[in-house]
Design a protein that fits this description.
The chain has helices at 2-23, 30-48, 79-96, 106-123, 128-149, 153-182, 197-208, 225-244, 256-276, 284-300, 304-322, 329-337, 365-383, 397-417, 431-447, 471-495, 500-519; strands at residues 54-57, 72-75, 326-327, 390-391. With 520 residues, it is mainly alpha-helical.
């Protein structure tokens, strides 16, 4: 029941913001309601940890011969860090809103709360049916937001292609569920069969843009810093949770070395583009690809705890940087603290990130460590830049207090998860790869202003899949979409022409004849 109350609280606060904006558009305390509401939601998710595991089940759907699963949710030691990270992001988005140019903005705040509630439902989903329904809701929210901000048919086509990649991920999750049913039982994420593990990983990879490598986002410039950050990170969390549900025994597959090689290349590419991007908002897709690849590499090494660690670092360190709307030297130094979350050093959030339960993955270690070094150097580089940020001195007195506190919330959560609350807390982990990654990151940062190769590139739409020979997949999706569009247009022209009535009668007669033959 605690799960249901918490989720409903997020949705009810969002509804209150919408109603107030409709009835009293100039109401002065809208932000205060949003801030207090998200604070209580954040505290509610924090209290989940004291009562784990938490379960909530809806009534079994009928008939049971068709619906083998029911809608159910479970919060455990691996899903709780995801849930707490999502609640932290929502809280930080509302707090940092006081420094953004569109303040006040009750409708984007309400949308962020709804996304937070859907994200919580996704990370605690107990079976594929539940997760698929939440994924569909998140994807629908994202495509509506993208199409509203897309200008021109070319960008709209890219939005649809990105949506098609997410639908392909849903299809792969369905396939994993069918594999489990074929083995004799419907799948739940607490006891997923090893045979379905790689399908779960591919489903997450399709939605995150790692397998195959692509950017599942149409444009970063059209999405605002606040709502855009919550949309990107909550959507990523809803897919990353699958990596924590992959059975460690799935890493023994013969396909693991090949998948691990692709993931390592994606990690290096994401880290490289993250380092060379001109600002953190243009680089946001590469941050997601780089750290998501490290999380997938942990899952392929039979380390779901490490995958959870990298995933939460992606959410918390990323949100601290992307929500920083004002530039000041002390704010930059506060952001430097969040670098601890991606170092992999002992007693940090990602201390378990380099753990491995397999011995045949040595060949990818140099690439993964290099990717971590590039991500570290790029994070420090972006945190010190003033591009796309306002001057801290121009903020009013209240914003100068609240905005830094909003940035500190995800950093404090990141430090807290290194010591308390879940299976990966208070761990030392392998020290050598983390030390090498930190040292290499320092070297890259020292070389960056001295070598032209590290010069930032201009923001543009890139298609990295072509570089790795996997662009055929997305060309095929685009071709299917365009072919279906042409077929629909042709049928409409035929049925709406002068002979359309006769064609309709003919189709009805053919349909009735087919039904009649089936009953003979």
């Amino acid at each position: 029941m605690l799960i249901l109350v918490t989720i409903l609280f997020f949705f009810l606060v969002a509804l209150a913001l919408v109603v107030l904006n409709w009835l009293r558009p100039k109401f002065r305390y809208t932000w205060l309601i949003a801030a207090v509401g998200t604070l209580f939601g954040w505290l509610a998710v924090l209290t989940w940890q004291f009562r784990l595991p938490l379960k909530f089940h809806l009534v079994q759907w009928q008939p049971t011969t068709i619906f083998l699963e029911s809608i159910s949710f479970t919060a455990d030691s691996l899903s709780w860090p995801f849930a707490f990270s999502i609640a932290t992001i929502v809280f930080a988005v509302i707090l940092t809103a006081v420094a953004r140019e569109n303040f006040p903005a009750p409708i984007p705040w309400a949308a962020t709360l709804v996304l937070g509630g859907l994200g919580l439902l996704a990370v605690i989903a107990d079976n594929p049916l539940t997760l698929l329904m939440v994924w569909a809701a998140i994807d629908l929210t994202e495509i509506i937001a993208q199409l509203r901000s897309a200008h021109g048919p070319q960008l709209s086509d890219k939005v649809v292609a990105a949506f098609a990649a997410r639908v392909a991920g849903i299809g792969m999750l369905l396939w994993a569920s069918m594999v489990s049913i074929n083995l004799g039982a419907p799948m739940d994420f607490q006891n997923a069969p090893p045979q379905a593990g790689l399908y779960l990983l591919i489903a997450a990879g399709l939605r995150l843009g790692v397998l195959p490598l692509h950017l599942p986002y149409a444009s970063e410039s059209a999405i605002r810093r606040g709502f855009g950050t919550s949309l990107r990170l909550v959507s990523a969390a809803a897919s990353l949770i699958l990596l924590a549900r992959i059975p460690p025994s799935s890493a023994d597959s013969v396909f693991t070395p090949y998948l691990l090689s692709l993931v390592a290349l994606a990690a290096v590419y994401g880290g490289w583009m993250w380092l060379r991007s001109p600002n953190e908002l243009a680089a946001r897709p590469f941050w997601l690809i780089g750290l998501a690849s490290l999380a997938m590499a942990s899952a392929l090494r039979g380390n779901p705890v490490g995958a959870t660690a990298w995933s939460c670092a992606l959410l918390l360190s990323g949100s601290a940087l992307f929500l920083s709307s004002a530039h000041h030297i002390w704010l930059a130094r506060i952001l430097w603290i969040s670098l601890i979350g991606i170092t992999g050093l002992p007693f940090t959030l990602t201390a378990t990130g380099w753990g491995s339960n397999t011995s045949s993955t040595w060949f990818v270690w140099p690439f993964l460590v290099l990717a971590q070094a590039l991500l570290l150097a790029g994070y420090l580089r972006h945190s010190t830049r003033s591009t796309k940020r306002e001057s801290f001195k121009l903020l009013d007195r209240g914003a100068k207090i609240i905005h830094p506190f909003g940035i500190a919330i995800p950093i404090g959560t990141l430090l807290l998860l290194g010591f308390w609350g879940w299976e990966g807390a208070q761990k030392t982990g392998p020290i050598l790869p983390s030390l090498v990654g930190v040292i290499m990151g320092g070297i890259v940062l020292w070389l960056a202003p001295r070598q032209r190769i590290f010069t930032p590139v201009q923001p543009h739409w890139v298609r990295p899949a072509a570089a790795f020979g996997t662009d055929w997949f997305f060309r095929g999706l685009s071709g299917l979409y365009q072919g279906a569009s042409r077929l629909s247009k042709s049928l409409s022209e035929v049925l709406e022409s002068d002979g359309g009535f006769m064609w309709t009668i003919l189709f009805i007669v053919l349909f009735i004849s087919l039904l009649t033959q089936g009953t003979l």
